[in-house]
Amino acid sequence: MKHRPAKTTSGPAEPAGGRSFFLAVRPDRGAPQLEPEDAAHARRVLRLGIGDALVGLDGEGGRWPLRVADVAGGAFEVEAAGQPQREPGPGEPGGRLPWIEVAVCLPREKRAEAMVDRLVQLGMAALTPLWAERSQGPLRPLGEGRVRRLRRIAREACKQADRAWMPVIHPTAAPADLLAERAGCPAALLDPDGPETLLEWAGTLDGTAGTPGRPLLLLIGPEGGLTAAERAELVARGARPVALGPHVLRIETAAEAALAGLVLALGASSWKAGQKRIRSRSET
Fold it and tell me: How many angstroms separate the CA atoms of 229 and 22, rounded?
């Protein structure tokens, strides 16, 4: 049986009937399949049956209407049930939020996983794990198992937040190397002794950043902080030391508070503007 490519439409991501699940195979690339964990949850926990409606998320803004086609013998097969919609991505015209990249020295595993869950709900577009001199152990990439675990947590957070875009997880980087790669991108370095607040820094942005090509960067160092030399090098490369308040915060508290503050300072206005554009298109 041949599978015809589905036509993607742009516009508002109106909630479709049924629960949302992530796709392992999109309908325009073959017989649609859910991620194995999502399929097992739909069959065993939610007990979806033949004909039940659901929505497949591809992690790239696509929302694909589906229905259950077969559950016999432990199978869980789905089929396309309409044309997909595409939600504009972070930093795109009409998108919900700007493209914000959180670069952070990850705390220990359970704390890091809980942090990633909340950062995804808050609207993080990309995560870069940082390694600094006071990080534990040598500079090395995250293991495949840990990356898979973080992606699974991110998928669950996307479903919780009704979010159609999966965040990007970049390779581990040293802070100075990251700024060299993101040259010219506005970067806020969280520092309790920073001469300005995060909101003051946000007020200096000219509105041209916050796209995948020119992300807004939030830099959070390790427990124990960055060394004086690391801080000086980051400032020399354009990072602005900013404070969230007078106290020294845990890594995850600092990352989550900074992202929430920046979303409120920048994202809320752009999201409202995007929604107005969407409504005006739908009313014409």
Answer: 44
Please state the domain extents for the chain: 9-86, 100-275
**Model's pTM, two decimal places?**
0.84
Domain over 9-86 is classified CATH 3.90.1720.10: no
Q: Exposed/middle/buried for 144, CB within 10 Å: 0-12, 13-18, 19+?
A: exposed
- Separation in Å, CA 37 to CA 49, 64, 228, 248: 17, 18, 45, 39
Q: What's the CA gap between 258 and 56, in Å, rounded?
A: 31
pLDDT digits (tens, 9 = 90+) for 243-269: 998 888 999 999 999 999 999 998 655
Of 184, 178, 10, the C-alpha closest to 92 is: 10
Strand order in the sheet with 240-243: 168-169, 126-129, 100-104, 216-220, 187-190, 240-243, 196-197
Q: Which CATH class is domain 100-275?
A: alpha beta
Residues lower than pLDDT 70 in the chain: 1-17, 136-138, 267-284
Burial 69-97 (b: 16+ CB within 10 A, else e): bebeeeebebebbeebbbbbbbbbebbbb
